[in-house]
Structure formats: structure tokens, C-alpha cells
Design brief:
Blueprint: H1 2-11, E1 16-17, E2 24-25, H2 32-37, H3 73-77, E3 85-90, H4 93-105, H5 111-124, E4 132-135, H6 140-146, H7 150-162, E5 172-174, H8 187-194, E6 198-200, H9 202-205, E7 209-217, H10 221-232, E8 237-245
Parallel strand pairs: 3-8, 4-7, 7-8
Antiparallel strand pairs: 1-2, 5-6
Helix pairs in contact: 5-7
This protein binds zinc ion (ZN) (2 copies).
Length: 290
């Protein structure tokens, strides 16, 4: 009993080996250097999070907010059901290792660095204007099989760091099993796969600004379907945050970077925060315990 208590208390202070580089890490599974070196997503479309490689604000500025509003050609043609999308990392290397470790090997502590980078990415963009954090649900069968929902694990960390309420369990449920999205070849097949997949309790989301949270966003089919369902259940605004943005870089016929007409922005959709990054007014306090 005493030994267990001592171990628990000391465990908070004693260094352990960083899961990524083996160096000393305190207070988490990843050392500060590896946390800083995670492949942050640079310029990206504000509505779908797809990287915009030609935005010209990469390199040293990668991961910092891009002044102004930027939309990809695809979102200009067909706006997604998201007012905004913030993806923290590119889905590669150490970021992929953390996501896969969490999801497939049950390394629950990896939720912490992943949640930290999501919270950082969001905080860098300005004040959080949302009421509820809703992790993308797993089908009950898969949840039983895995024992946890990786999106919920990350959402807990983000919720704590940004002081944002987490949706109560059962707010959204996946009512039918879907084939793993990664097994499907194209965006159209993925969209069909998730159509009608979710059920959302309107009492929980009605009139509220809801943030969906997922570990990896690829085509966006899953997040878009959940966003549509949350919107239909009465949410005032829906945006999405993701640890990683995978998927093809935008390759449409139009210029990947374009300034949208004012009409292209939904009422209240993008939030003043995007226009007001420089001031830092109202910026949430980001507490990252180390
Ligand atoms: Zn490290
Ligand atoms: Zn886009």
C-alpha cells in the first residue's frame, strides 16, 4: 500500500524514457524536444484542414497561424459541413507513431502529447468560441473490442487544457458498424460507407457550438457525416479538430490558395478569432504541465 502510494507520487516526478527518442522525459511519455519536433501542419485550408503547400508561409512559420482566411479550391466549389477545421500534425513519422501507438497498441499515455498539440494549435489561432467537445464515437462493438476510444482519450486532454466541456457519453453514437475507412479506395466509397452512421442526442447539442474531435482526418467523410448529423440535431455551429491530417494534398484544377468572398463564410462560422490572431485578446490560457 505504502509502496504503491510512493510509486504513484514519485512517478509524477521521476523522469522516464521518451517513447520516441529514449531521452529523459518528465511528466509524460514524450520529451519536450520530441513534442516540439512533431511534424506540425503548416498552412492549411480553414474549412477542411487540407495542407496548402503553395501558401508560402511554411518553414520557420509552419504551425503558426496564417494571416487572413484561406480556402482550398475544393471547399470553394463545395463547402464542407464544417465552419472550421484545425488539424495539428501531418500524419507521418513521429505523429503517426503516437497515433498508432495509442490506437492499435493501447498506449493510452500517448493521448497526452497528442492532446497537447491539438490544444496548442487551437490556442495559436485565437480564442476558442465553442461550447462542447465531442469525440467521434466508435461503434459499440469496436469500443468493446478495443476497450477505449482513442478520440475520447485525446479529447479528455484537450478539454482539460482548454477548459472546454466534454460531451457526455451517449451524445453521439455510431449506430451501425462501418468498414474501416482506410480499407476503402476513394472518397465516394468512404462517404457511402458512413452515410447515416451516427445518431446524435439533440438535447445535448441543440443551440450549441460543437467541436468534433478525431485522431486522424483523411478524406473527412466520417467527420463530415457526423457534422451533418450534429447540425441536423440543432447545433448552432460545428467545427472539427484533429490530431493529424492525412490524405492527398489538394490537387484540384483551381489554385489551391484563394481568398473567399465574404459570402463564402458561414454566418458566425469562422469566428472572430481567425481574424484577430495578432492581438491575442481573449486567448485561452494553455496549461501544459510537464
Ligand atoms: Zn524524445
Ligand atoms: Zn478545404
Amino acid at each position: 500500500m505504502v509502496n504503491k502510494w510512493t510509486r504513484n507520487v514519485l512517478g509524477r516526478w521521476l523522469p522516464s524514457a521518451c517513447a520516441l527518442c529514449g531521452a529523459e522525459a518528465r511528466g509524460g511519455p514524450v520529451c519536450g524536444q520530441c513534442l516540439d519536433d512533431l511534424p506540425r501542419l503548416g498552412s492549411a485550408c480553414v474549412r477542411c484542414g487540407v495542407p496548402l503547400p503553395s501558401a508560402g508561409l511554411q518553414g520557420s512559420l509552419a504551425g503558426t497561424p496564417v494571416p487572413g482566411v484561406t480556402l482550398c479550391g475544393s471547399c470553394l466549389r463545395e463547402p464542407p459541413p464544417l465552419a472550421r477545421c484545425v488539424a495539428a500534425l501531418e500524419f507521418r513519422d513521429t505523429a503517426r507513431a503516437l497515433v498508432h501507438g495509442l490506437k492499435f497498441r493501447g498506449q493510452l499515455p500517448f493521448a497526452r502529447p497528442l492532446g497537447e498539440v491539438v490544444a496548442r494549435s487551437v490556442a495559436e489561432r485565437g480564442p476558442v468560441e465553442a461550447d462542447l467537445l465531442l469525440p467521434v464515437p466508435l461503434h459499440p462493438g469496436r469500443l468493446r473490442q478495443r476497450g477505449f476510444n482513442q478520440a475520447t482519450e485525446v479529447a479528455r486532454v484537450v478539454s482539460r487544457l482548454l477548459g472546454m466541456p466534454l460531451a457526455s457519453p451517449g451524445t453521439a453514437t455510431r449506430r451501425r458498424s462501418t468498414v474501416a475507412q482506410t480499407d476503402l479506395p476513394g472518397a465516394r466509397a468512404r462517404r457511402r460507407n458512413v452515410a447515416g452512421a451516427f445518431q446524435v442526442d439533440s438535447r445535448e447539442v441543440s443551440g450549441r457550438r460543437v467541436v468534433l474531435l478525431d485522431d486522424v482526418m483523411t478524406t473527412g467523410a466520417t467527420l463530415y457525416e457526423l457534422a451533418r448529423t450534429v447540425g441536423a440535431a440543432g447545433a448552432r455551429q460545428v467545427e472539427a479538430w484533429a490530431c493529424c491530417r492525412a490524405g492527398p494534398p489538394h490537387a484540384g484544377p483551381e489554385s489551391p490558395q484563394a481568398s473567399p468572398s465574404p459570402g463564402g463564410i458561414p454566418r458566425g462560422g469562422l469566428g472572430e478569432g481567425l481574424q484577430d490572431k495578432a492581438s491575442g485578446v481573449g486567448r485561452p490560457t494553455l496549461v501544459v504541465p510537464r
